[in-house]
Amino acid sequence: MANHECVQLVPIFSELEADQLDTIEKIVRHHHYQAGETLFSAADALDQLMIVANGQVKVYQLAANGREQLLYLLQTGDIDGEAALFENQQRTSFAEALVPTDVCSIRREDFQALMQQYPSISIKVLNVFGKRLTQLERQTTSTATESVEARLANYLTETAAALKTDTFKLPIKKKDLATFLGTTPETISRKLTLFEQQGLITQQAGKVIKINDADQLLLTE
Amino acid sequence: MANHECVQLVPIFSELEADQLDTIEKIVRHHHYQAGETLFSAADALDQLMIVANGQVKVYQLAANGREQLLYLLQTGDIDGEAALFENQQRTSFAEALVPTDVCSIRREDFQALMQQYPSISIKVLNVFGKRLTQLERQTTSTATESVEARLANYLTETAAALKTDTFKLPIKKKDLATFLGTTPETISRKLTLFEQQGLITQQAGKVIKINDADQLLLTE
DNA sequence: TTAAAAACTTGACCGGCATCAAGAAATAAA
DNA sequence: TTTATTTCTTGATGCCGGTCAAGTTTTTAA
User: Fold this and answer.
1) FRET label pair with B196: which of A178, A203, B30, B138, CA 20 to 30 Å apart?
2) Which UniProt keywords are listed (chains A, B) (predicted)?
3) What are the structural domain ranges in chain B?
4) How many CB pairs lie under 8 A apart between chains A and B?
């Protein structure tokens, strides 16, 4: 089955040899989730490293008032669960498959043994942490200091830049995008309409968006 | 000089022997900053691990619109700069001493050599990352989904809990606290007055606050 | 101790955006 | 396909909290 090769999808194992990857494959567990299914909840013990072998997973938190905050959108090859692997913590987030998803997991002790054996893994994990920290710092600053309009404009230009195209389909539904940007679906609709009226974007059928003027979009305050 | 012992203040070196600490001391550089002085700016190259030997440092970002976001308040023994030590990135944050501060720094290549030599350091750094990620995830969720009132109430109860006392002095000025909580000094003043009118806290001279009803405070929406 | 500067408080105003509601569109199921 | 369900859009309304301003208190400097 294809997802048995999930280990080689993951950048943190990229410097290992084929036979070493085989060793890891043997300690990996495979799971399949349907769209909408919960992978883990905030109360769960945190003793697994999770690898998305195929699919899409949203990781989110719930605030005290019950509102949802989308933190990460995991794609094939992304990992999660490392954050607190090194402390005796509980999870603080929820994870839910957005589409049918294959996941591999490695138990905490197995992963720690791997890090002992292959020091390059630690370095890679530190890289992942660093990137994620940098991203979260930006997100915090952005939600706390910029308008919804500016955050949405940023999201659109960044997504276009990442995909290297000016026409793309929004990868998630507006409700999820809203919780990611710290706003509501209604406001996203309104702002997209506004951008279109300003000629900055064009909305096409099926959540497809074409960016007409990325420079001007970025000037949104 | 006392700050020559900064290395032993730092948890990431806590499992090393005395003679190993001596080795590290030799590669460490010492700096002193006055209150208000800038330690580094966002444009600076990121090639130093920074250790606060004595004092207090605020780490913040500037949004596109010029507004400030306080990310971390570093105390004696805290480190910073590791986030992107493992990628060839530039800094994205600014750091400024809030009081007269002694800082030790270790160059990137020296630190990486240390991690090679003493694997326990990598594990410790992973710990620091994990804690910081968890904290930032909470901060993002909080600023994006909860009211200013709730965020301030949380901050007060958490600070009290951390200091294990119900009467404490706000460690930073309101302007900085405002950028930390994603609000303004005026709103903080108003909300503190509100809490006092509700009997939840008592404000005393010199930014000293006494928490009268932490349970009720946490119920603030 | 006194003077100057910085930080804080309170008031008035108002705009951005959340909320509620109802209809339209798109997606999924039958 | 047709139907049912979910998602999206648009309008009306209200409030949280930001901004500007002026006075007060605290802190710093002389």
Assistant:
1) B138
2) DNA-binding, Transcription, Transcription regulation
3) 2-144, 146-218
4) 137
